[in-house]
Amino acid sequence: METLETLDTLNNSTLDAIETPDSIAENISYLDRILQNIFTWFSENLDTMLFVIFIGMATILAARTINNFLTRYYERASSRLHIDITTFRMFRHIVVAAVYFIGLVVVIFHIPSLRSLSIAMLSGAGLAGIVIGFAAQNTLSNIIAGIALALFQPFRVGDRLTIMNEFGKVTDINLRHTVILTWDNRRLIIPNSVISSEAIVNWTIEDPAVIWPLDVGISYDSDISLAKKIMVEEARKHPKVMTPQILEYSVVKPGLLKSETFANGLMNPSVLHAVDPDFRERGQVKVYVTEFGDSAINLRVNMWFKDRSDAYGAGCEIREAIKKRFDDEGIEIPYPYRTIVYKTDIENEKISKKPSPAEEAKKASGEQAN
Questions:
Q1: Class of domain 210-329
Q2: Which cellular component, as a GO term, is one annotated location (predicted)?
Q3: What residues are paired with 266 via a beta bridge?
């Protein structure tokens, strides 16, 4: 009996699972209602969708047109007006961002639901401002830091920096981040809020010329005067080491000069920089004895280069030339020498120096005879 009841239950469930023509018709009618609702919504909001698409395309076209126009204007006017590229790029980024923002505002106020939502958010501006401020804290801090970098200009586009243990050239400053092209052709992208709080070595902000040191150790038996002479001669032979000169022009920045200052090609704004009075004399090659080390006398040669990008490679070549001259002239660059004295050796030496009993007796007899 139990087996028959189980079979009846399975048959009833199987029959219930089979769709009847009425259930199929109900599903078809449900799908029709969904499609009809979608079609109705599209037909009622077609003008809104077309408007949004039109405004979006117009905004993108306007932003690109303005960006291209400003770029071409800078290329034409930079040589005549001496426009600072860092300030110009930041201004260009702000203008393009403003165009996109205006397009977004137009779309929001054209759609009634979005307009009412925006009005509600503005009416509760206190709470909304707190929420938005926390949500966009990093973005806002980067934007504010980017504007501050463009205004105060601790560095400019084209400057060479050492930051976060990286050396490279600034290629772009926008509202969010700064792009630095490193010496090995990598792009270092640093958020503006981070770079504004970092200690930066700017090699080209005013005077790009740099004193580059090179340390060499010689043995205590070597001739110091000859070693210093060789180091000066090899430094002078290199074509990138600056010749002795004195700079006489005023401490000014190119952005503050009037156009008539550059009349008749008297000054080149690309090489005109502020010069500190303490460093007007440049181009000297000087060698100093810096330390008496454990196994070497350490010498340092200071050389002038026109900028940091030349200094490293030229310094490596000069170091190699000095090594070859030292080998030819008999100047030794020593290995670290260490003298190890064992305690047992000291005790044995003391015992060996102690006189024997016969020597002590002979010495005593000699003193009595005297």
A1: alpha beta
A2: plasma membrane
A3: none
Selection from 146, 145, 200, 138 nearest residue 173 by Cα: 146
Pairwise CA distance, residues 136 & 141, whole Å:
8
Q: What residue type is 160 in one-letter code?
A: R
Sign of CA dihedral 177, 178, 182, 185: positive
- DSSP character at residue 190: E
**Cα separation, 120 vs 370, whole angstroms:** 122
CA atoms within 13 A on the CB side of 129: 5
Instruction: Collect all residues with Cβ–Cβ distance below 8 Å to 89 and sequence separation of at least 6.
Output: 150, 157, 172, 173, 174
Q: What does each C-alpha distance from 336 to 109, 294, 328, 339 come to in angstroms?
A: 78, 7, 21, 10
The residues with which 189 forms a beta bridge, in sequence order, are 179
Average pLDDT, consecutive stretches of 10 residues, N- to C-terminus, the chain (370 residues): 50 51 59 67 69 83 84 72 70 83 80 64 55 66 84 85 90 88 91 89 85 93 92 93 76 42 43 68 90 90 90 92 93 80 71 64 60
> What 3-state DSSP class applies to 290?
strand
Pick left, alpha or beta for residue 153 (phi over 0 → left; psi -120 to 50 → alpha; otherwise beta).
left
Phi, psi for 78 (deg, rounded to 5): -65, -40
Q: Which fold has domain 153-205?
A: SH3 type barrels. (2.30.30)
Half-sphere exposure of 314 (CA within 13 A, CB side): 23
How confident is the model at residue 241, as a pLDDT? 93
- Give the residues across from 286 on adjacent strands: 302
DSSP per-residue codes, 193-213: HHHTTS--EESSSS---EEEE
What are the φ/ψ torsions at residue 248 (nearest 5 degrees)? -110, -10
Residues β-bridged to residue 168: 161, 182
Cα–Cα distance between 39 and 45 in angstroms, integer? Answer: 10
pLDDT of residue 268: 47
Q: Residue 69's Cα: distance from chain center in Å?
A: 29
Cβ–Cβ < 8 Å for 331, 227: yes
Domain extents in the chain? 2-44, 153-205, 210-329
